[in-house]
Amino acid sequence: MRQTVRFYLGDDLCTLRDISPTLTLLDWLRDRGRTGTKEGCNEGDCGACTVLVVRLEDGRLNWRAVNACIQFVSMLDGAQVYTIEDLGTADAPHPVQTAMVEQHGSQCGFCTPGFVMSMAAYRKSEGASADEQAIDDALAGNLCRCTGYAPIVRAMKQAMAAGPDRFDAQVEAIVERLMVLQDGESVRLEGPEGTLSIPASADDLAEILLTDPEATIVAGATDVGLWVTKGMRRLKHVVPIGRVPELRSLTRTPEGLRIGAAVTYQDARVAIAELLPDAGEMIRRLGSTQVRNSATVCGNIANGSPIGDGPPMFIAANATLHLRRGAERRSIVLEDYFIAYGKQDRQPGEFVEALSIPKPAPGAQFRAYKISKRFDQDISAVLGAFMIETDDGGRIIAVRLAYGGMAATPKRASGAEAVLIGRVWDQDALEAARSAILEDFAPLTDMRASAWYRQTVAANLLTRFFEETAGHGQARLARTGGLAHV
Amino acid sequence: MSDLVPGAASTSMKHESALLHVTGQAAYIDDLPVPRGTLHLVPGLSTKAHARIVSMDLDAVRAAPGVVCVLTADDVSGENQISPVHREDEPLLATDHVHFWGQTMFAVVATSRQAARQAVRLAKIEYEEKPAILNIAQARENGSPMVWRSLTMQRGDVERGLKAAPRRLSGQIEIGGQEHFYLEGQAALAQPGEAGEMRVWSSTQHPSETQHLVASVLGRPHHLVTTEVRRMGGAFGGKETQANAWACLAAVAADRTGQAVKARLDRDDDMMATGKRHDFLIDYDVGFTDEGDILAVDMVLAARCGWAADLSGPVTDRALFHADNAYFYPDVRLKSEPLRTNTQSNTAYRGFGGPQGIVAAERVIEEVAFATGLDPVAVRLRNVYGTGTRNLTPYHMTVEDSITAEILTKLVERCDYQARKAEIRAFNRTSRIIRRGIALTPVKFGISFTATHYNQAGALVHVYTDGSVQVNHGGTEMGQGLHTKMVQIVLREFGLTADRVRITATTTGKVPNTSATAASSGADLNGMAVLDAVRKIKDRMITFAAEKWSVAAEDIHFRSDGVHVGAEVMTFQQLAWQAYFARVSLSSNGFYKTPKISWNPETGRGRPFFYFAYGAACAEVSVDLLTGEHSIDRVDILHDAGQSLNPDIDIGQIEGGFVQGAGWLTTEELVWDGAGRLRTHAPSTYKIPACSDRPRIFNVELLENAPNREETIFRSKAVGEPPFVHGVAVLQAISDAIASLDDYRTCPKLNAPATPERVLKNLMALREKAG
Hey, what domains does chain B have and what are their CATH numbers? Predict the structure, then answer.
């Protein structure tokens, strides 16, 4: 048992004993005089606080842009952190910094360090290219109010063509020093502002939660972070699960995919897309790169939000949730986890271990549609995720229509499903399902959309699903590469 | 201009702080090193839209860990008033009533910001609720007072014109407000000094006003207060008056505690407490001919102004000044209604009411186009201001420089408008789910503050004996590149390179009695003041050199290779040293006031603008008929920056302005609930454009060979606000896509912002009508 949190900031090893378990990385950095990292919103939406968190995983370095404002320092145990101050100087700028200057990528300059960090991270991501959509995805979590983004995208393209950065020569040294930090020890800090327990194994975690069922499990903190920065909540006992190897595992099985509770959306995206291509597309729009780099698939479920984008998709895909309490394990179909608003089927001391997504039946078709005011990085007004399977005669033998934003929990449209089952998937069936869905939900009006809009769109998404599975092909706006003519 | 040094005015140069920005070394208020013992202030905001304060129990707040003191209205030793227009309607801290949800009632001062944020939640406030008036409709129904006088502009006889017109239609347009969403929130740091001095670092567009109000709340003369700002992390009008409260609170707290106090707002508090762009409800009545000639326009422009006057008077005035956009209305009457509501006090925002007026003018054009079956661009060309006739505005100013027709014609050609429109119409005939639309709209924007006395500026330039130069002026840098342009003016005049000229923070201690950096006027006003200061020093150097080396003054030139004194060439440094040695002053202030302008709101007549800036934009969009979502597929802009001071920076202003304007009219929606609480108070709920919202294809060009006809700084034109208006092309393109649903017979009358929901509702109504 270690009683310190250890990580590298730049080339300095930081060994912290007296920290609040919910101290944010942003506050900590700025208090230390690293003021290049800015606070724009303090809720993980604007990206002005973007920093690089590098972790040693399977023997290689993973470079990730994350929002420092909702990342707790206590989650960084074993990591390497770089801020804008580490990247380059006026005399020896990083290629991204050079490109941003040359392309007039900064105006007021306040969002700029965050952009630069996202851009530097993007250069280090797998398969990075000058493709505009890939750049849009990489930068979706950075808001700029001055430039209209065009010069920043030009700078990103320029930087893709530039040479190595100063970190490229240091890879071995970074690997070596991070290896030293990987001691497999669990961590416990007790202080006036709360207790921190970092389990190093699933058994540790189970034990901690049995002892203190009130403890707060933290995976990516993209939700819990806001409890602290906006809700001003004090969390007495924080349990980051990022170092639990069993929960970090992502397993492709003959039946499908098993995603551990600490696996981020970014890490799971490709594997999910292999099973459900449209879910991969949807995840591209879920949060932002920074959010997906922290947020976990299971956290998106565990918090019970009615407007999370993952749950309806995984419910449509007939996923199973695995829970554990002490040594007891159980598995439930995902939709049963959501009991009511703010109420989930999770017992005190119990935690989510993993999510299993089965392979879709051959010939089954899956689609996910996210509707929001803004295309990228917006919380859905409605999310519709649909799976349909027809027999040789075109009859529907299985159908799952799941929605987010339509009820107090992510929920299936059971009436519409009942109407469809056994019918031929044709225009008449569509119309019947459209009518039925109006009875399935009584959504709310809020700042994202009215009840009318949600109802109307819930039905219209069925039309889109019909068009794409039984009709004329792709029936949605293409953000790049020309339009589908339907 | 071949002899200009690199980076001189009229050529491109990088932003003077670019390297600092990208390396994180550019300091904003919250980044400045703080004096020892600096305290932190967090405002306590009301949670009722309109109420009498029965009691405020702040005991638990005072007792909370880290709290040093809690300020209420009684702690303000001077005037508890911060109305920037001296209406006495804006208490710094609420007294007996609160007038909107988010009004500052008290302020917690604590040893850390975290402690203050925790403590502020412990207040127990008892309210007696009063009826709240939240929007324009409610204000009208309840006869809510206006925060400012209504203005009417008229020319000709609109009643007769409307009656005599062969065709006539009327309608209404709703135009939403807009949150500034400067990335750096409101922030100020106040440090008390000796003998009552107060030094304030504030993220403000208007250091002089901040200085004056800090002095007023402290009850002290101006000369004891100094305000300084090196740069802002964005402002867009949102720090013209809205920065004052936080500077004043920090100063009151600093005065009270004797310690430096920092007030930096949390984003949610910032959005709850500060004013935004005014939303408008505009009714129009228009008479026209079958050929699309507009004969008469009658408009009433009502605005939700919020709880206090702030700048709503001049903002609603400017909406009227632009309700003609670029068009001649033979008979016209325009009337403003600045309505008081129990919401945030709406304020300056890039365009200052002008964009709302222009959106209405373009709706009128759109209506006439649908009514006559003519192409909207053809209608525009028929109605644009002429160059010798048909050139009188509704405020009786003659448009002397109309180039709208030229710009429209050029852009139609360059972006292949007609062929693309035909292709889009063909596409729409067979496309069931996706419809496309295109629109091409002009902008004409009046440049000058309509408050004539604001059109003055000062500068202070020092040449040191090593030939390096320091330049100061009254304008503030918020990202627009003003400081860069000011440096460029010095480079051009002295023939120096950028490393020899340093621009310093804007401070009321160096240049006093300044105007806000606003109304796009920053470079126009301060540039001329800097030029004046530089030329005074230059003239002294020339006089000195002419005498010393016996050459004619006209044979002395400041060039990139040095100062040419007759046949001799010496360095600027050598000349500066020689001049100093001969006891020549190498420091000078500079001053400028805009000529020709005047405006009388009593008569509705005058020449409020020195000149107009012009431009045009063509937007192409796709709309999803199932959800109302859209994408911006292509945008072409041709914009008039005169002889640009810095073409690269000006293109940046145009690109950025366009995207901000498009955001205003599409994704950016402010939503208040029935109790008057703003529900979109953070980026999680209020959606400014993200990277992928920029147009897929985005072509921006400056109008070439178009020096300002008026004598502005090197014949440039203001470029801050006008390009914001180009976003209107997106709104109209979406409308064009929707109109395809009944074969372009009906004007969809699409309101703004065109969120997916509003678009869907609109297109379903049209589809129903079409049958």
Answer: 18-26+456-593 (3.30.365.10), 35-130+192-264 (3.90.1170.50), 280-450+601-770 (3.30.365.10)
